[in-house]
Amino acid sequence: MSVYDLNRAIHAIYINRDNTIAFRNGQFDMLARFDLSSEEHTAIVERDFPKLWAFHVHPIILFHLSAVLNPREWYMANVAPKIVGVPNQFYDYYLTAEETEPAVS
Amino acid sequence: MATIVSAVASTHNPRIFWNRDQADQNALQRLYGAFDQTRKLLAETRPDVIIAVANDHLDGLFLDNMPAFSVVTGPRAFGPYWYETEIMNLPGYDGLIAQDAAASILRSGREEGIFFSQLNDFKVDHAFTLPLSFVRPEADIPIVPIVTNAFGYPLVPTKHWFGLGQFLAREVASWPAHLRVAVVASFNLTVEVGGPKAGKYNMDFTRWLVEMMSAGSCDEMVASLTVPRLIREGNSTSEFLNYISLLGIVEDRKPNFIEHKPVPGVGMCPVAFWNLA
User: Fold this and answer.
1) Which of A14, A91, A104 sits opposite B223 (nearest CB)?
2) In B92-224, which ranges are E strands?
3) Over the stretch A40-52, which tens digit does the pLDDT of each residue have?
């Protein structure tokens, strides 16, 4: 199990139309190709987006998964409020960065 | 020698199509009018080649290989992805790539320190197809797609995005053929995708950004808009770095035309045009 494999699994669901349709129909065989923990597998199958955020799915990837399953507004109402302050290694990457980047020379 | 005759900076906000039914229709028509005007202004500069600078959205590139800048050297530029057409209602785009120009940019870039990755069989996503569909729907002008990384951290600092534009200006000027070249940069203002601030905007920052764009305040934008500064305003505000790359070409020239009013129900949809002929 790894953050990389979790992200790759979700990417595989939405980037391929056939995989998306299978996922919508409750067919999850494609997930066997990825090294997922049982908690990660369950979070994907149950479409538990706040938990996937906490497992460090990249925000763009998480939103794209939602986009192929739900209207855009569903994510705003049901996910965004539940992930406020929840650590995510991609989202947090620059939020604590100091302004150390040099100006153009 | 070749000349950059025009430059376009365009939103690639997919909600223009995805949320069009929820949009304020008057504002949406105004936006379509702005794109139509940009299309006409671009056509008047009679470009032979379009260099398009846009970021991938973790569609064609993934976390295992995220080059800062890539040149697509294959024969065709086509896209977007299935979910962008079927679910988000985005128009398709399929055009030829100016392969000689692409190969020259790739070689010169690597020799001058812009360490481009090379992509051949690569589908472009809506960051390319949305602006190009608006400003050149005929898809009859060969393009050079330059794919940027705005989401796979760490990103290269702002000065290198500016340097990309400066390099493109030098590169085009070095071409012996009398080509007329347009550059289209695809970007967005403050926006968050998939994060807790999704749907919320810092309008003070956005207004400041638009003022800087309208005034042609190149030095101030390049100096102050560091990667962390942009991302603090929304995780996808890093897409503004594509605009920074265009500043390496237009420098402190004010755009001849700019439209930046938000479209209620859709969000920010800026578009700007420079006549450099």
Assistant:
1) A104
2) 93-96, 117-119, 143-149, 180-187
3) 999 999 999 999 9
The Cα–Cα gap between B214 and B2 comes to 27
**Which residues constitute the domain of residue B217?**
3-275
Q: Which residues of A touch B87 (CB under 8 A)?
A: 67-68
User: Which residues does chain B have within 8 Å of residue A14's beta carbon, measured at their own beta carbons?
Assistant: 83
- Nearest in space to B145 (alpha carbons), one of B242, B216, B44: B242
ipTM of this model?
A: 0.95
User: What's the predicted TM-score (pTM) here?
Assistant: 0.96
Rounded distance between C-alpha atoms, residue B260 and residue B138, angstroms = 25
d(CA B142, CA B50): 6
Residues 6+ apart with CB under 8 A from B104: B171, B175
Count: domains in chain B: 1
Q: What is the CATH number of the domain that holds B215?
A: 3.40.830.10
